[in-house]
UniProtKB/TrEMBL annotation:
Residues 519-788 are annotated as: Disordered. One of its GO terms (biological process) is methylation. Residues 664-686, 743-755, 766-777 have a biased composition (Low complexity). The keyword Transferase applies. Residues 17-271 form the SET domain. Residues 522-557, 637-648, 720-729 have a biased composition (Acidic residues). This is SET domain-containing protein. PANTHER family: SET DOMAIN-CONTAINING PROTEIN, UNCHARACTERIZED PUTATIVE METHYLTRANSFERASE. GO terms for molecular function: protein-lysine N-methyltransferase activity. It comes from Tetradesmus obliquus (Green alga). Keywords: Coiled coil, Methyltransferase, S-adenosyl-L-methionine, Transferase. Pfam families: Rubis-subs-bind, SET.
Length: 788
């Protein structure tokens, strides 16, 4: 410890003497940083000069002739630059670390390497047998093992490395895996941005291994986190823990974000990550779902406390209940294919349209859903939807199911309305700098009577199908968790399965509630003759539509079931009526509208209104809680990191998007950024989060003394087979896309780095990057992460 701290000091760093970086007295017995004396809010905890980090600039490894980065020898740099296609930053950093650490005491980083643990529990280190424990969860393995990848793709390249880059005998799978493990569990991701314009460069994540700061553990609980982190590029005077002042330049700065009493763990956040993401990337879970009995007890206590009207008791009970519910960032990936399967079964069973029309109608629906922002643009059928605790039945999912179940006539009306809407929008937005895609949002007004029942049936079917993928139901997962030693790999695997099972049960409950509401709402249908009229309107529509569906098909589209069953016809008609009205923009259809990230989004006259409000409140809270964090890199699919730039296509997530933290430092950062005339990069884009992992990765961090804003990201970085290995080519992975370079590329502030950042273009997609956004066409059905 002392040798390491001295090393850092000698290199111009600072470690507040009130903290112990290597405390082992944490409840888990693992290492953690602890306060040994009281620390005041705002106090400087750590300062690490950038040259003391292990870091590769993306350009340095992709552009032949680029200057050799300070922490990369010429041999390593040239080797990396010679790779075609280039290595991904993950692999490049791993190779650099492998080469540097192999030098042993000869490396200037030797004191840092001495602080690194031997191994973590992240999935890179799980055996095939252990991986089986995750079958059916989002972490199910479906790819090559890390060893296969290494042997086939990495080892041959390392064997061709220039002499002297690796000491003799230092190249092995074990050495590679250990380096990859360290990069996976400890590296920080930063989004490089254009320092002049503030525009975020989506293509340019950079990885940093930051000595000392990488000793901090993560907490999923905002109330336990007590630090903030910033990268300061400009020179700044810093007040140290003892009140003295020193000037620093180009450094990472960690401060106490609140008072930290002696004996408290100093914690940061790696991002708003699900259990699966935490396990995959870091090898731990810190808010496991409580076993069902405990959850019920907590809920019971909560209601009693609420009745007792004691604010403190109620707050404590609410906290206990929240804890029992587990990680609020958990999510389940729902492949659209499963939804299509369930919808087509329901449609066939109820004869919603003749079988011969099914294919064409479906294609038209998928196309509309894609153009309306609900599915990915390319290969919409490969979209994946997210079910989260905050939104177990997201509006987007509900709209998709409704569209899928519309009869041909209904759909045509909608299609027409959509086209008009989009045209209008285009006209309005012409010349506007940033076009906002409007999402179709059908709300819940149509979900009464038979149509509501059909929608509910599809949701129940899908939830059931997803649950069947898990090794057992929630009870089985809970039993497996109870039987395993807390913190062990079987325990963590069971916790992930339980968390996902609980979410699916929530979806199921939503389906049941929808069913009940539909059955109640279906009875108060109104005037038959009106319905008849509307029905007529729908069936005789349109001579010249471009729906892709011809007129004869429309006639045949009249659901035979409706014709046959006069009694049931009622509610279906009501649905037709509302759809038609909405499509035509009439009064009756005014709740059947578009979502445009606007305040009017949730305008539902509906029994679920309160529930939705509650979900909205939860979402707001989530936003508030998601403070700037420094995530050591994380993650499931490397695609998430490099490719999924089309965040619009994520379904089932909120538009909470990248808000600066509500806390004072971030607000100050925002103000300073504004004062410096700089935008907050992608944080201001107004895009939706594409993925909970991304939620973690989109926090703006800091403002340098001169207002240089950069973002620090904690990204999922989960080698997805080929992606783990290499980055294909620049236009797929998103390194440099010369054509798309912003004009103001050669930014000045921050010196060469700023210019470098500014020079990078926006990434383009890999075989459907849009797909990746919605969960990813590349991402296997259930797999989110390293597939080895
Ligand atoms: C960036 S390092 C943090 C420092 C680490 N504890 C050490 O001793 O080197 C990340 C690793 O710390 C551990 N870790 C971080 N937060 C944790 C938590 N809340 N619970 C358990 N382990 C945690 C995991 O092993 C993870 O892979």
């Amino acid at each position: 410890m002392a040798a390491f701290v001295n090393w850092l000091k000698d290199r111009g760093g600072y470690v507040n003497p009130k903290i112990n970086l290597f405390n082992k007295t944490g409840s888990s017995g693992d290492r953690g940083v602890y306060a040994e004396q009281d620390i005041a809010e705002g106090e400087q905890l750590l300062l690490v000069p950038v040259p003391s980090t292990l870091h590769l600039d993306v350009e340095d490894i992709t552009k032949p002739g680029a200057t050799v980065p300070a922490t990369c020898t010429a041999a390593v740099s040239q080797f990396l630059q010679a790779q075609q296609p280039p290595f991904s930053p993950f692999i490049a950093t791993t190779v650099m670390l492998m080469a540097e650490s192999a030098k042993g005491e000869a490396s200037p980083f030797a004191p840092y390497f001495a602080t690194l643990p031997e191994a973590s529990d992240c999935l890179l280190n799980w055996s095939e047998q252990e991986r089986q424990l995750l079958a059916g969860t989002s972490l199910e393995s479906s790819g090559r093992s890390i060893q296969d990848i290494y042997e086939a793709d990495i080892a041959p390249k390392l064997a061709a490395a220039p002499q002297g880059m690796f000491p003799v005998g230092s190249i092995s799978f074990e050495a590679f895996r250990r380096a990859a493990d360290m990069v996976q569990t400890r590296a920080f991701h930063m989004k490089a941005d254009n320092w002049l314009t503030g525009a975020s460069q989506e293509a340019t994540d950079e990885l940093y291994l930051i000595p000392a700061i990488d000793m901090l553990n993560h907490s999923s609980r905002p109330q336990l986190r007590n630090t903030s982190l910033a990268l300061m590029r400009s020179e700044a005077e810093v007040t140290l823990g003892d009140g003295s002042k020193r000037r620093f330049k180009d450094f990472f700065s960690m401060k106490a974000e609140r008072d930290i009493p002696a004996g408290t763990q100093v914690l940061h956040t790696y991002g708003d990550l699900s259990d699966a993401q935490l396990l995959q990337t870091y090898g731990f879970i810190d808010t496991p779902p409580a076993l069902p009995g405990a959850a019920a007890a907590a809920a019971g206590k909560g209601s009693k406390a609420a009745k007792s009207k004691s604010a403190a008791a109620a707050a404590a009970a609410a906290a206990a209940a929240a804890e029992a519910a587990g990680n609020p960032h958990n999510y389940v990936v729902l492949p659209l294919a499963m939804l299509l399967d369930a919808a087509s079964k329901v449609a066939a069973a109820t004869h919603l349209w003749p079988a011969k029309k099914a294919k064409k109608l479906l294609a038209a629906k998928l196309s509309l859903l894609a153009s309306s922002g609900l599915l990915q643009q390319q290969q919409p059928q490969e979209s994946q939807l997210l079910i989260t605790a905050a939104a177990p039945l997201p509006d987007e999912l509900l709209t998709i199911v409704q569209v899928l179940l519309m009869t041909e006539g209904e759909f045509k009306q909608l299609q027409q309305a959509e086209q008009e809407q989009q045209q209008q929008q285009q006209q309005q937005q012409q010349g506007a700098q940033q076009q906002q895609q409007q999402r179709l949002d059908l709300g819940r007004d149509l979900l009464q009577g038979e149509f509501g029942e059909l929608v509910a049936t599809v949701l129940l079917q899908v939830a059931g199908d997803c649950l069947k993928r898990l090794p057992g139901n929630a009870a089985a997962a809970a039993a497996a968790m109870a039987a395993a030693a807390a913190g062990s790999r079987p325990w963590m695997a069971a916790a992930v399965a339980l968390g996902e099972a609980l979410l699916l049960q929530q979806l199921k409950r939503e389906g049941l509630m929808l069913m009940l509401a539909a059955q109640q709402g279906g009875d108060d249908d109104d005037d038959d003759s009106d319905d008849e009229d509307d029905e007529d309107e729908l069936s005789d529509d349109d001579e010249d539509d471009d729906s892709g569906l011809d007129g004869s098909e429309e006639e045949a589209a009249e659901p035979p079931a409706k014709k046959a069953k006069a009694g049931k016809q009622h509610s279906s008609k009501q649905h037709h009526k509302a759809a038609a009205a909405a499509a035509a923009g009439t009064e009756a259809g005014k709740h059947h509208k578009h979502s445009s990230h606007s305040k009017h989004k949730h305008e539902h006259k509906h029994k679920h209104g309160d529930k939705k409000k509650a979900a909205g409140a939860a979402e707001k809270k989530k936003k508030k809680d998601s403070r700037p964090h420094y995530g050591a890199m994380t993650g499931p699919s490397e695609e998430d990191v490099w490719q999924s730039d089309d965040s619009e296509n994520v379904v089932g997530y909120s538009e909470s998007e990248n808000e600066p933290a509500s806390d004072a430092p971030a607000a100050a950062a925002a103000a300073a950024a504004a004062a410096a005339g700089k935008k907050r990069g992608s944080s201001s884009s107004g895009k939706r989060q594409r993925h909970p992992a991304d939620a973690s990765g989109k926090h703006t961090y800091e403002v340098g003394a001169a207002g240089a804003v950069r973002e620090v990201h904690g990204h999922m970085l989960g080698p997805d087979e080929a992606d783990l290995i290499e980055s294909d080519d620049s236009d797929k992975v998103g390194y440099v896309d010369e054509e798309e370079q912003p004009a103001a590329a050669a930014a000045a502030d921050g010196g060469s780095k700023a210019a470098g950042s500014g020079g990078r273009g926006k990434r383009s997609s890999r075989g459907g990057a849009a797909a990746a956004a919605a969960g990813g066409s590349k991402r296997p059905k259930k797999g989110l992460g390293f597939k080895g």
